[in-house]
Amino acid sequence: MVKEKGSKSLTKRDIIKGVTGLIEPGRLTALMGASGAGKTSMLNLLAGNEDVILDTMTVREALLFAAQLKLPNDMPYAEKERRAMDIAHLLNLRKSLDSIVGSALEKGISGGEKRRLSLGMEMVTNPSILFLDEPTSGLDSFTAYKVVRILSSVAYKYGRTIICTIHQPSSEVFNIFDDTIILAEGQVLFHGPVQSMVPYFGALGYHCPTHFNPADYLFMEVLHQGATSATEDTFDFIAGSKEDEKSRAKAREEESGRIKGLLSAWNGSAINQKMTYAITSGATINTGVHESAIQQTAGFWIQFALLAKRAGYNAMRNKLILKGKLAQTVFLSLIVGLIYLQLGNDAKSVQDRQGSLFFIVVQALFGSLMGVLTVFGGEKVVFQREYGSYMYGLPSYFTSRWLVELPAHIVMPILSSVIIYFMVGYQLAADRFWWFALILVLVDNSGTAIGIFVSCLFADINVALAVMPMFLMPLMIFSGFFVNSSTLGWWFRWISYISPMKYGFIALAKNEFSGLQILCEPSDTGCGAGGVRTGESVITLLGFDDLGNVGFNAGILFLITGGFLLAAYVALWAAVRRSHH
């Protein structure tokens, strides 16, 4: 649905229109066309494949991961391993088996090897059909030639049907293909053997010069006739006169008419009629792949174990992230400890004690939230690719990913508690320290749950990062520190009910101030006999009297964490559902 120029309403625009084709086993087919012709859209309709692999996996692990998830449960592990190694040998990946995939920050395998590995993860199940989107994109001419040669060998030797989009291949690469489908304006312009393409268009008046790359001929002369005048068009565009604009509009109209003529010629051609007869005569009925063949074969627990193992390796190999989390925890904890170092018990220290507790809650929630948002959001493209290939289900992925993250979100808050609690000088009692540590663990995990929820809610991580402050500010403002909870109107009070910062602050405040003896001057308001004020009076001033004890607020934090995780699961389910429909 698009908004046409000069119109306020949305209108339907077809991207793919009336496409019919016949792709045979044992043949390698190139899907070609100008930019915007609908190549990737058509391939996504058929397969929806992406070239995305987790960057910390080795080549061996990636192939075995695919084999264990997609091959039948009753197949022995040794057979699955042999299948994976055979694929590595076929794709010339044996020398790179123990090299990591790598990323922009860490060197790994080459671009060509990554393309072949992505192909191998699909081939490990010995599929009848392979759909590949731009398998040679970004590769030098020799590596591109090797990749396409491997695809041709697989199609010919194993009788597989392989179709891939490709943009202006070299003549050597183009001649490896058996068939080509050429799209224009979302419709088929030509579909047949590559050797028939030049004679077909030659008969329509588009003659290919001798010793000219047929792919270049297709793009320069057939799809974009008159491209040699591009320099003059650029000069005219810079001049910007009305006559130039009219001339360009007329040229575009003529080009559109020419393409429509070529489309009409194809519809009436003998090649098309022969192919259409083969399809409509019933010869190809019931020869496709059955739907059961694309469903994941591994059970939940196998998926869970493999995903948890991979996520664990990923966490350990991302040493920079691990060191960053540790350094952040220690550094921020020391900063808090030094700012509020050894608070006293006099009236002046009450504000500092309150401020330290609230700052600790905010720091715990924000630190975990932003960390998981970037990591989880960055890995989501890998999940979408693998889920789209039916490698595993959503429940196994979500639960394993969360449980692997959990230890770090327990250890780090406890480490922070050890540093902060004794540096600041809170009440020296074992039970109060462990309640303090537990509250920080729960706040940290609620921040993690919110981060996962937001990263699942938005497809683009940059959008998620931009929206996050708008989401967090109301939760922080109505947490009970800036505004007294008892004075909130009903129209704002509901926000405080879902704020983990509120329950974390209440729990820490009650844990610290209950039973605390605050020294005061007898002339001070609320000062009791002997110049002592109780910490309970501070809790009353904060409006926390009727908001439950420490355990109650800890339980609410636990429920908030579970609620946001459930919301994240639903958001991720909705996202993958949209992408598959």
UniProtKB/TrEMBL annotation:
Residues 1-210 form the ABC transporter domain. The chain crosses the membrane at residues 326-343, 355-376, 434-459, 471-492, 554-576. GO terms for cellular component: membrane. GO terms for molecular function: ABC-type transporter activity; ATP binding; ATP hydrolysis activity. Its main location: membrane. Keywords: ATP-binding, Membrane, Nucleotide-binding, Transmembrane, Transmembrane helix, Transport. It is found in: Membrane. SMART domains: AAA. InterPro entries: AAA+_ATPase, ABC2_TM, ABC_transporter-like_ATP-bd, ABC_transporter-like_CS, ABCG_dom, ABCG_transporters, P-loop_NTPase. SUPFAM superfamilies: P-loop containing nucleoside triphosphate hydrolases. Pfam families: ABC2_membrane, ABC2_membrane_7, ABC_tran. It is a multi-pass membrane protein. The keyword Nucleotide-binding applies. The keyword Cell membrane does not apply. PANTHER family: ABC TRANSPORTER G FAMILY MEMBER 28. This is ABC transporter domain-containing protein. It comes from Haematococcus lacustris.
